Amino acid sequence: xxxxxxxxxxxxxxxxxxxxxxxxxxxxxxxxxxxxxxxxxxxxxxxxxxxxxxxxxxxxxxxxxxxxxxxxxxxxxxxxxxxxxxxxxxxxxxxxxxxxxxxxxxxxxxxxxxxxxxxxxxxxxxxxxxxxxxxxxxxxxxxxxxxxxxxxxxxxxxxxxxxxxxxxxxxxxxxxxxxxxxxxxxxxxxxxxxxxxxxxxxxxxxxxxxxxxxxxxxxxxxxxxxxxxxxxxxxxxxxxxxxxxxxxxxxxxxxxxxxxxxxxxxxxxxxxxxxxxxxxxxxxxxxxxxxxxxxxxxxxxxxxxxx
Length: 307
Fold this sequence. Notes:
12 helices; single chain; alpha/beta
């Protein structure tokens, strides 16, 4: 069982979804971008239609096209592809997962349903949701800790869900180092096979010292090879090297995820367009994009990092 779970270790890129100037899917750019990412030695796999991939503004058929393109690119390189879904009910989750089972996907990452944040929620509701999916579907599951306190999975609930054989990884993006540490320690105590992938770009390098098995971070769309080098150093136990690389990346990371954070996708696309990996930097409404002055600052910082 551990060997199967270990496949979900390393750096995973929740890639952007390219659009043309009209706002339609740009599948040519998507193929070029995903093929580029999986060609890099430090990348373990791709994650499609997450927040950075603008999953919330994509239609069902659009998502299927993205899953298929990214999955083919990942599998051609012998790497992992994780499709993201955002169900609101158990039945919807089962239906979406069964559909994804027919596509080139190795797992699904599940955005927590809105009901998970509706007041004080009994942990049994959250656990039963994943138990039902385990009975009714075949695909492995990646749990997602979103950076919204009302949605948080507490450490005990995470451990209960992790006991399900189909739950292979946990993207922990609480941005709360205390919660992250407590969760990892409890998982270690249980000898859990589930992989912990840090989504905490504020303390990526430190996450490995605490016990992360990899990273699943949107900012790794930019300067991907540097993030890959950090992941390799962190998983090898070279925490000083990992911390040094994070310091090198700090300025670009702060620009990409400056407020308003919702525009991080627009900033990432500006860099990828500048690099020639996507044809346009178009984002979908209600995102507004960023002003020319901010674009220049971002590209200047990125150029300084490259030099």
